[in-house]
Design goal:
The chain is an alpha+beta fold. 34% of the residues lie in helices and 20% in strands. The chain has three domains: 190 residues, Histidine kinase-like ATPase, C-terminal domain (Heat Shock Protein 90), CATH 3.30.565; 110 residues, Ribosomal Protein S5, domain 2; 169 residues, MutL, C-terminal domain, regulatory subdomain (Ribosomal Protein S8, Chain: A, domain 1). The chain contains 21 helices and 22 strands. The relative contact order is 0.07.
């Protein structure tokens, strides 16, 4: 039997730190929550090298007294709770007492703090859980924590960190979410010496959303609020027209604490049912306020997973808040007002209306014409031209036989013999029957129809096999279209039903793959700016080269945005923003995909957006050309999703369904 050993303090702290501190973003989250719990209304966050080498959090909160500074770095030491009953009414963001101890176990930490009651501050330095210094310091009221060299003594953890840019974007995502959860706190974020975010701290959530995600995203939101069964919902949801291809822009908070909740997402999707397309998701920033005894936040050390005592109660509250928002905030009032004013009759004086009205003709108008003067129709330029045309039509045109005789005559040296009878028909307009005119022909002429004339070597003329994959024009007949979605035609004794969207999507997909890296994109007249979540933004920046290889020209615009200047020729400018959002979401969900799979999915997304949609009108000529093109490509029988692009039914199968055989 193996012997049971008591782990050392240092090893136990490393194990605990692994649950709390995963990357620099975890450190920033814990320290920001401590600053807000300390009552700060102004917080500054600064990072360098993605936060791996340097992180600084400065707040103007209550500070830490010198007597408590050492206890703050002891595991499970906290001022938020005192006994077991306090776990049932947690209103603070932190309560476990593990953050500072875990951070100090894997990094070098320096704290400068001062309380309002103290005349002089305290400077405390701790490295790998060991105290280095505790001394007086001159510092403002509040707390400043500096974290250096994260995981400097645990290289195994260091190798799992991403690039500096990726880690910095993860930190930016945490800062954004905490700023949204507490709009009353002014948060300033400095990245590599450059300020990238500052919120006003006025307490207005819509203003905070505008400061974090930009004006374009904020304009797509409508307010949502409801209160039922002791649950209060407040925040904003997006309009149905601004639906996104993923849920990355859905933010839920419980008592101003950022959480992940499947219940809230399900209620949001249910409220938007029949308002947005299938596969699209709304955005939201919603805060759920309820009695803390009805929710358990002590589920995971990260405190992002919670349990509700009544899931149905939360579902109903979110659902009704979103439904009310859509019913009241998504009504196009301005459009209706414009239409009403547009069709309104203009108010004009009666005299002005009388002048503008068309005078009615007199009843005895024709009786006023003198009888001695004939009512001749005036001559115009048009009438002269008509007479001239009539004179020309009275001339006798040579018939087909006369034209051939004249061209074949030896006296006509300047004439050039036409190569086919089609050229003769273009230069002749027979007006009389050929039987009435019998000219003497100096040569014998035989007229052969053009479609039967074949000019080819004797050995090259071979009849194509009946079952060849080559398209046969004579065996094709277009019948029509059903439901503006399916093209129906007859080909080689079979009835073929073509899904025009699926077929067009596969054709574009194959074309994009074939011309990869050698295509000429279209330059957008107005560049498109796409707002992304910080995770999507980081994934997009990491794969910019791959995206540009697929026919786009995408650049980093900063602040969680990218700007698109060029796109593939097949893609409409209106679909650029949605395609980039889909691509970014795919990169986040499928981080482990190789470059080839990512590029293939980009082609797939562009082809799906570019293809003709089911229900769109298609002319008969377009249907015929499209069907011929598809039938001449035997290798295309499935769309990129795996669905068939056409269905074939033989005459025998059709007759069997009707009971003829």
């Amino acid at each position: 039997m193996p012997k049971i050993n008591v782990l050392s303090k240092q090893l136990a702290e490393l194990i605990a730190a692994g649950e709390v501190v995963e990357r620099p973003a975890s450190v920033i989250k814990e320290l920001l929550e401590n600053s807000i719990d300390a009552g700060a209304d102004t917080v500054t966050v600064e990072i360098r090298n993605g936060g791996i080498s340097y992180m600084r959090i400065t707040d103007n909160g209550c500070g830490i007294s010198r007597d408590d500074i050492r206890n703050a770095f002891v595991s499970h030491a906290t001022s938020k709770i005192a006994d077991a009953d306090d776990l049932n009414s947690i209103m603070t963001l932190g309560f476990r007492g593990e953050a500072l101890a875990s951070i100090s176990a894997v990094a070098r930490v320096e704290v400068m703090t001062a309380t309002p009651e103290e005349n002089i501050g305290t400077r405390y330095v701790i490295e790998s859980g060991e105290e280095i210094l505790c001394d007086d310091a001159g510092c403002p009221k509040g707390t400043t924590i500096i974290v250096r060299d994260l995981f400097y003594k645990t290289p195994a953890r260091m190798k799992f960190l991403k690039k500096d840019v990726t880690e910095a974007n993860a930190v930016a995502g945490v800062v954004d979410r905490i700023a949204l959860s507490h709009p009353e706190v002014s948060i300033r974020f400095i990245r590599e010496g450059k300020q990238v975010l500052i919120t006003s701290g006025k307490g207005d959530l819509h203003t905070c959303i505008r400061e974090v995600f930009g004006k374009e995203f904020a304009q797509t939101l409508i307010p949502a609020s409801a209160e039922t069964n002791g649950v209060k919902i407040s925040g904003f949801v997006s309009k149905p027209v601004a639906a996104r291809p993923n849920r990355n822009m859905q933010f839920f908070f419980i008592n101003n604490r950022l959480i992940k909740t499947g219940t809230g997402s399900a209620a949001l999707s249910e409220a938007y049912k029949n308002s947005i397309m299938v596969g699209k998701f709304p955005s939201c920033v919603l805060n759920i306020e309820l009695d803390p005894s009805l929710v358990d936040v002590n589920v995971h050390p990260a405190k992002t997973e919670v349990r509700f005592s009544d899931e149905r109660m939360i579902f109903n509250a979110v659902y009704y808040a979103c439904k009310n928002a859509l019913d009241s905030g998504d009504t196009p009032k301005q459009v209706r007002k414009i239409k009403k004013d547009f069709f309104k009759e203009p108010e004009k004086p009666a005299e002005q209306l009388k002048i503008m009205s068309k005078p009615e003709p007199s009843a005895d108008f024709w009786q006023h014409i003198p009888k001695t003067q004939p009512a001749a129709k005036p001559q115009t330029a048009c009438s002269f031209e008509v007479k001239s045309a009539e004179v020309k039509t009275t001339e006798v045109k040579p018939t087909l036989v006369q034209s051939v005789a004249k061209l074949a005559s030896p006296d006509n040296k300047s004439a050039v013999k036409p190569e086919t009878t089609e050229d003769i028909l273009l230069h002749s307009q027979p007006k009389k029957a050929e039987a009435e005119i019998k000219p003497e022909l100096p040569v014998e002429i035989k007229v052969v129809p053009v479609e039967k004339t074949v000019v080819a070597p004797a050995e090259a003329v071979t009849e194509a096999p009946k079952e060849s994959n080559a398209f046969c024009e004579e065996e094709f007949l277009l019948i029509g279209e059903a439901f503006r979605t399916y093209i129906i035609c007859e080909y080689r004794g079979k009835m073929v039903i073509i899904d025009k969207h699926a077929a067009h999507e596969r054709i574009i997909y194959e074309k994009l793959k074939k011309e990869s890296g050698e295509r000429t994109p279209q330059l957008l007249l107005v560049p498109v700016t796409v707002t992304l979540s910080k995770e999507e933004y980081a994934a997009t920046i990491d794969n910019l080269e791959l995206i540009n290889e697929s026919g786009f020209e995408v650049e980093d615009f900063g602040g969680g945005c990218v700007i698109v200047r060029e796109c593939p020729m097949e893609l409409s400018a209106d679909d650029v923003e949605e395609v980039i959002s889909e691509i970014a979401g795919r990169f986040v969900d499928k981080k482990q995909d190789v470059a080839f799979e990512k590029l293939d999915w980009i082609f797939h997304s562009v082809a799906c957006r570019s293809a003709i949609k089911a229900g769109n009108f298609t002319s008969r000529l377009e249907m015929e050309r499209f069907a011929k093109q598809l039938l001449s490509m035997p290798d295309i029988r499935y769309c990129p999703h795996g669905r068939p692009v056409l269905i074939e039914m033989t005459k025998r199968e059709l007759e069997k369904n009707f009971g003829r055989i």
